Amino acid sequence: MSSQLQLLSLFILFGSASLATEPSIRKIEFSVYGHTLVHRIEYMPVSESAVAAGATPQAAISIETHSLARMGPHHCLGDGQIMFVDPTTKKKVAHVYLPETSNLWLLIFIPNPHFKSDPNNHLKYLIYAYDDSPKNLPKNNLSFINLTGQTLFGTLGTKRIKLDLGPSECYPVVKSLPIHLWSPSVHRDKFLPALSETYRCKSDHRYLMILFPPVLLGAVDLDVRFLCEAVQ
Questions:
Q1: Which residues contact 60 (CB under 8 A, 6 or more apart)?
Q2: pLDDT for res 1
Q3: I need a labelling partner for 172 at 20 to 30 A (CA). Which of 55, 100, 205, 229 fits?
């Protein structure tokens, strides 16, 4: 399977999981982040399924993203499916299903590479859903989300790490945290340095590093987003 197909399968997982079981109505809290700026889209905070179960309808809520931090929190009462639409045309631009394993999520919006060539059959954004609960990402810890389409290898301080696609395990942080990552070359005959940086961390915070493919075609430096959040 190609790296692009492997990566797309991560998003398909959250789009089709709703077919497996009959979900219950629950309250979900989520924040949002965008690979590129996302604005002028909205969602219904009380879903049709919740209204059918007796909940009171509410007006649509707009969301937007910021390049340096999570935005939110937002809330939704429903069966775990959230649809985002253009507020003017009401056309669906993104969709996600959030399993009952958590009610706290970070939704990462990524431009759909197929949208420009075929907008009638593809949504504008893909959404990667990350379990953002304190249990999954405790304070004084760092987790990676590898969305590069490649398995990465490297070191975190003195610890050797391997980052498969998707979320990693959590790693305790220290005040000064050197991170070095290598990615395979195009021909996969060697590894090239993709990230070499020392990050400053604070106590009573938690950290999430989202790894996107390089901005420039043929480059090796990863597009890295380092999100920090204070935790009580």
A1: 42, 43, 44, 45, 85, 87
A2: 41
A3: 100
- For the chain, which ranges sit under pLDDT 50? 1-2, 5, 17-20
Name the CA dihedral angle for 184, 159, 214, 201, rounded to a multiple of 10 degrees.
Answer: 180
**Dihedral angle of Cα 31, 35, 38, 41, to the nearest 10 degrees:** -60
Task: State whether residue 7 is helix, strand or coil.
Answer: helix
Q: Determine the straight-line distance between the first and last CA of the chain, rounded to whole angstroms.
A: 43
3-state SS, residue 172: strand
pLDDT at position 217, please?
80
CA distances from 105 to 31, 166, 200 (A): 7, 15, 25
H and E: helices and strands count for the chain = 2, 16
- Exposure string of 22-33, with b = 16+ CB inside 10 Å and e = fewer, is ebebeebebbbb
Q: Encode pLDDT of 6-54 as tens digits.
A: 555 566 555 554 444 566 999 999 999 999 999 999 999 999 999 999 9
Pairwise CA distance, residues 146 & 56, whole Å: 39
- Which parts of the chain fold into alpha helices (H)? 3-16, 48-52
pLDDT score at 189: 77
Closest CA to 179 of 132, 226, 130: 226
Task: Note the pLDDT of residue 14.
Answer: 56
Residue whose entry in the numeric block shows the structure tokens 């593809």? 122
